[in-house]
Amino acid sequence: MVLPSFFKTYPRALWLALVLGLLAADQVTKAHFSSTIALNTAVEVTAWFNLVHVLNPGAAFSFLADAGGWQRWFFIALSVVVLLPIAVWCLLLRTEPAEHWLGAGVVAGGAGNLIDRVRTGAVVDFLDFHWNTWHWPAFNLADVYIVGCLLLWMALSFTAQPNAAKVRP
User: Fold this and answer.
1) Cα angle at 166 between 164 and 167, to 5 degrees?
2) Residue 127, CA distances (Å) to 11, 81, 90, 95, 155 in order
3) Could you tell me the maximum CA-CA distance found in the chain, to the nearest angstrom?
4) How far apart are CA 165 and CA 99, in angstroms?
5) Does residue 104 contact residue 95 with C-beta atoms inside 8 Å?
6) Do 19 and 111 form a contact (C-beta atoms < 8 A)?
7) Active site residue 66
8) Which contacts (CB < 8 Å, 24+ apart) does range 14-20 have?
9) Nearest to 104 by CA among 166, 14, 169, 31
10) Measured between alpha carbons, how far is 95 from 82 in angstroms, rounded to an integer?
């Protein structure tokens, strides 16, 4: 089979394909819910879950959402400063396989939210879990990638053996 042999020959291409696939899923879902649900409205799916269309100019839990606009550029710069080293680390250094793939999730999620910030100044969120009138802050697939991968990465750090990173061939 041609595709698996290609990825064996060029393992970085598989990492990039995963990042691009996750990024595409994030952007497609954001575009879908932005175009099918009016801004700041909700569609009830269950008694505890809604699909919504909200824009978050802040960070997690709407941190700095009302900061007056400067936070857009701050979060864009912060995203670049965090994502570039992780991408370089995953692509150029020999890391544990789990760290390599978890880094792809963090990069894809961060890039997805970065694209939103550059394009509109705010991140599109569409997943809303709630209990009665208490709502967890809305989020999106990029947030799931980032939080999920970072939690797994932290859990792995407690079980990992010390290993010096080496430059990939």
Assistant:
1) 160
2) 33, 27, 29, 33, 25
3) 54
4) 11
5) no
6) yes
7) no
8) 15/90, 15/91, 15/100, 15/101, 15/104, 18/101, 18/104, 18/108, 19/104, 19/107, 19/108, 19/111, 20/108
9) 14
10) 18
> From the first residue on, what is the mean pLDDT of each consecutive set of 10 residues in the chain (169 residues)?
70 90 98 97 96 86 63 87 93 81 95 95 94 91 95 85 56
Please spell the DSSP secondary structure of 23-59, one letter per residue: HHHHHHHHHHHHHHS-TT-EEEEETTEEEEEEEESSS
Task: Note the pTM of the prediction, 2 decimals.
Answer: 0.84
Residue among 82, 81, 96 at smallest CA distance from 161? 96
The residues with which 44 forms a beta bridge, in sequence order, are 50
Report d(CA 147, CA 74) in Å as an integer: 20
Q: Which of 26, 116, 125, 128 is the catalytic position?
A: 125
Indicate the SS3 state at residue 103: helix
Which residue reads 């699909």 in tokens?
51
pLDDT of amino acid 64:
63
Report residue 81 CA to chain centroid gap. Answer: 15
Options 26, 116, 128, 143, the catalytic residue: 143
